[in-house]
Amino acid sequence: MLSTMPNFPLTIRHIFEHGRDTYPDSLVVTATKDGTRSITFAALAARVGRLANALAKLGVAPGDRVGTFAWNNQEHQEAYMAVPCSGAVLHTINIRLDLEHINYIINHARDKVLIVDAALAASLAPALADTPTVEHLIVFGEGDRSLLPGALEYEELLAAESEEFSWPDLEEMSAAAMCYTSGTTGPPKGVVYAHRSTVIFNFGICSGEALGLNYRDRVLPVVPMFHGNGWGLPYACWMVGADVVLPAQYAHAPRLAQLIQEQQVTIAGAVPTVWWDVLNLDVPMDLSSLRTIVCGGAASPRSLVQAYQDRLGVTFVPGWGLTETHPVASLAFAPRDSTVEEGLDFRATAGQALAGVEVRVVDDEGAVLPRDGEAVGEIEVRGPWVTTSYYLDPAEDKFHDGWLRTGDVGTIDRQGYIRISDRAKDVVKSGGEWISSLELEAALMTHPDVREVAVIAAPDQRWGERPLACVVLREGSTVSPEELRNFITGKVAKWWLPDLWTFIENVPRTSVGKFDKKLLRTRLAEGALDVTSNAT
Hints:
The chain has about 525 residues and is of the alpha/beta class. The strands form four sheets. Strands 1, 2, 10, 11, 12, 13, 14, 15, 16, 17, 18, 19, 20 and 21 form a 14-stranded mixed sheet that branches. A seven-stranded mixed sheet has the order 7-6-5-3-4-8-9, with helices on both faces.
């Protein structure tokens, strides 16, 4: 029997029009140097129409790529709507990549127009030396415009155009946006998000099993809007009428705490580093308006989850995913029948897959392993918002039969909780057995004098590899390797205990805030780390 339901294409245009027409008085708030500026959904929607007309006049046609190089702010939100709704493709460029990679992805994506935050002109200008497809730069905000000669003024373009735009009817499988991976293991790879996958993802992230977003919420996306479409939050908020509070370039801990308090933020999303920094603020702060903190981009230690629960009474929800999964694939809530302690253990996992996403663990030969919480293998995913290929890059080793090889190693239990024990490239293989760098880091992070720690594999003549703990101590603290080794004895397997230690000022990070273990391994190979051994 055939369905009589209409073939209604799922496109971002419907998110845009629904938010505009149903929640005209909801707000987009942007942090400024001395305060904030606000605009209603209705007023912003009018500017979206003006921007779409301006881009069309500049020759932007359906399928053309429009790059953004900007902080999280109102103008970026406007581009999020105008570009894909007009049929073009929104390419959010990672502002923290090095110049070579920025230049590479502009050229690889063949961006036709770049919308640039003037505050970032100095970061972008050197990367524009050889970008033949870029026909126009559009600049907004405060900054040194002399670094971008010939750039068009954003506000002048909008002022010259009508608020009315004839939005095209688009195919739901047409490209809406694209993001590039951070390029830590080779050139960045482009991930293209379809209109359909974007809409379905936002249904998922707003649902009750996820964030339960609604018009009563005020959401602070600290996560950059170039990082996996800001975890979908710019669209999700618009879909349900939640106020959006955008931190612009002021996403440092004191200002974030101030924004949460003054704007009565109910949900905020950022990487663990940000939440450690907020937690360690030595100033009075009231975060009581928060009902949920979403954390992703790197593993969330149990100690961080517990600190927010015990000290601030905030539900801390780690998530897991990749740029390739839009990027959220799972969220970690505690089962309803768990104790407080059990709940903390569950919330320190990668969580359970959202409805629509399928997850499995496979061994080295590709055989599917049982969901028993014990069988360890590589995690694979598939689903309506999981990519099946990279843009102009076959990468056959990453995709097969509709499944994405994530490169994460771990287990899945009978309730579907995913526990990531390591990245395949970061795991320590000692004597033929795996040692989880993430579990060692989590154990060491519970020491009161340890601020952060990254564990990497160090070559070993006997065992092949042994763990090297790269430790950052809290200011004024002094702790010996022997003390740290004794502290985690009994918390991890005895043969996991690190033999090698180095104390560093900070753990280097990638452009999206993850520990850059590749750089640490390079420093080790070059002899740039002062390593102490306490092997027995």
